[in-house]
Each structure stands twice: as C-alpha cells, then as structure tokens.
Specification:
Blueprint lengths: L8 H18 L4 H15 L3 H4 L5 H19 L20 H13 L2 H12 L4 H8 L3 H25 L1
GO molecular function: DNA binding; sigma factor activity
Organism: Ornithinimicrobium ciconiae
Protein name: Sigma-70 family RNA polymerase sigma factor
C-alpha cells in the first residue's frame, strides 16, 4: 500500500509537515518546539524515504518519531510546557471561536496520555490498536484513556454550557 510510487519527498513534505505540526500542537507541544520537532522527524525520514513511503501510513511513522523526539527533549529539559494558543484556522459555519477555545482549554486540562489518545483517535481517526502501537502502550490502556478523557471533556464542556 503506502503512497503512490511517483510521490516524491518534495511532494509529500508540505502537507505532511503541516499535519504533523498541527498534531504536535494539539498534543501540547509549544509552537516553535512543534516546528523544530517536526523538522527533526523529517531529517530522520530523508535517508529512509524509499522504505517509509511504502508503509501503510508514512504519517504514522512521522508522528511516532516526532513524539519520541519530543519526549526525549522533555526528559532532558526540566521546564514545564503548557498547551499554548493555536493559530486561528478558518472556522466552519456554525462554529464559534469561543467553542473552539473551550474545547482547547478542556483538552489542555486532560492528562498528557489522555490528550494523546484523543488526538490520535478523533483527529487522526486511528483505531485503538494503532494508537497503542504508536504510544507503546496496551490497547486496554488506550481504551481506558479514551473513556476517561471523554468523561472529563463531557464534564468540562457541559459545565460551561450550563453556566451560560
């Protein structure tokens, strides 16, 4: 499977880079760091491109490598990082900026492992088994994290709606 045989790295890079940086940002990596981590993941991809482009999901390989780069950086850096404000994408009709900010705030309050599972499952539409592989945890752990994250998000977002 993988990408079409004629897809070169120059064609793949622009869109894959944006997706990767966006994923890292939602997972809690600050903006400048997300760009640097994504670049480093692509540097590691270049010598392996001929092999990785044949994978079912080259994006999955990049996400896994980028996330591990980030975790390694954090282990060596004692600072704590918060989910900073994401740039404003175009909003679909009926979606208000306040709704988006409420969701981002609720995601920010989730424990890191729960936020990772939510992003991979709901934004990238990955199945439980794939998430478990990418995060190097058991499938039951992913299910538990998703369940707890959904409960926390429902509580946080319901409270905000009820308060209005």
């Amino acid at each position: 499977m993988g990408l079409e045989p004629d897809v070169g790295l120059a064609d793949y890079y622009p869109l894959a880079y944006r997706r990767l940086v966006g994923t890292l940002r939602v997972m809690g990596v600050p903006g400048a760091d997300a760009g640097e981590v994504a670049q480093e993941a692509f540097v590691r991809l270049i010598p392996r491109w001929d092999q990785i482009r044949s994978y079912d999901s080259p994006d999955g390989w990049l996400r896994t490598v980028a996330w591990r780069i980030w975790l390694n950086r954090r282990r060596h850096d004692k600072r704590t990082f918060a989910l900073d404000e994401l740039p404003e994408p175009p909003q679909p009709e009926g979606v208000h900026a306040a709704d988006r900010l409420s969701l981002l705030a609720a995601l920010k309050d989730l424990p890191e492992g729960h936020r990772e599972a939510v992003v991979l499952h709901y934004l990238h539409d990955l199945p439980i088994a794939r998430i478990a592989t990418e995060l190097a945890v058991a499938e039951g752990t992913v299910k538990s994290r998703l369940s707890r994250a959904r409960s926390a998000l429902a509580t946080a977002l319901t409270l905000e709606v009820d308060d209005v």
